[in-house]
Design brief:
Shape: globular
Helix content: 25-40%
Number of helices: 10
Radius of gyration: 18 Å
Largest sheet: 7 strands, mixed
Number of strands: 7
Structural class: alpha/beta
Length: 261
């Protein structure tokens, strides 16, 4: 098993993820979660590490708020797109870029991070628990991991809802390697156990696209987007909807001095 590099499908990634209603909902719920966790961190310019940051939409947004962001990715094509996006947003002064893997992030930090972003990467890596342990070490005490991962339960539900029984019966094995269907969908309970084994304290969870992907009338996703987003926002932080999201976002904190008392 090996980790995924998106050099070969960077354009497809941009079009299929960020140029759609599913991308808009993903970004909206992510920012709601980031706004909530930022309120719990020191009110100053934060040191942020974005691991597998891709084209940098979230990283540039945080840099625009005055934070210092180091964006790492193994894809040179993705990093170039991130630099271009940062230049367009006029935030290059607050950003750095490194072409390294998640396993190497500890080597490029001058000091521990206040916040680590690890969005839509866990489902592409072959050794997830080891990488989560690396990210734990990269954080300062009291720092936060913003983790978003592709949910196995959501994949099963969507596959069955769309009548793809044959694919479900063979365990949803990928036929093509160069697709945007994740290599390793994650069982939420296993992810939570990994985080806790590393030492993280799980503070918040949210499902991302808890309704959108299961709608049969795809045109309504576009025509009634605002209503759909409002309903997603209303239900995405309660069960059973968290566990049905196509992605799940977890806010996990590395214990600080107050937690150790």
């Amino acid at each position: 098993m090996q980790d995924r590099n998106f050099d070969d499908i960077a354009l497809k990634f941009a079009q299929n993820i960020y140029g759609t209603t599913k991308g808009r909902i993903r970004q909206a719920i992510l920012w709601q979660e980031l706004d909530a966790l930022l309120e719990t961190l020191p009110a100053r310019s934060l040191n942020i590490l974005d691991v597998g940051g891709g084209q940098g939409q979230i990283a540039c947004g945080l840099a625009a708020r005055g934070h210092q962001v180091l964006l790492c990715d193994i894809s040179g094509e993705m990093l170039q797109r991130a630099r271009e996006h940062a230049a367009q947003q006029d935030v290059l002064d607050n950003m750095q870029f490194k072409q390294i893997s998640a396993q190497q992030v500890a080597q490029c930090l001058d000091k521990p991070a206040d916040l680590v972003l690890f969005h839509a990467v866990l489902e592409w890596v072959a050794e997830p628990e080891a990488i989560l342990a690396t990210l734990y070490e990269a954080l300062a005490p009291g720092g936060i991991l913003s983790l978003m991962f592709y949910n196995l339960h959501g994949q099963i539900l969507s596959t069955a809802a769309h009548g793809n029984f044959g694919w479900l019966e063979v365990g949803m094995k990928k036929g093509k390697k160069k697709t945007l269907s994740p290599d390793y969908p994650r069982d939420p309970q296993q992810v939570y156990q990994w985080l806790q084994s590393c030492g993280f304290i799980i503070e918040r969870r949210a499902g991302i696209r808890v309704f959108h992907d299961y709608m049969h009338d795809k045109q309504r996703r576009i025509d009634e987007f605002d209503r759909l987003l409002a309903i997603e926002t209303q239900y995405c932080r309660q069960e059973p909807f968290i566990s049905l999201g196509r992605y799940i976002h977890v806010t996990a904190r590395k214990p600080g001095p107050k937690d150790l008392l």
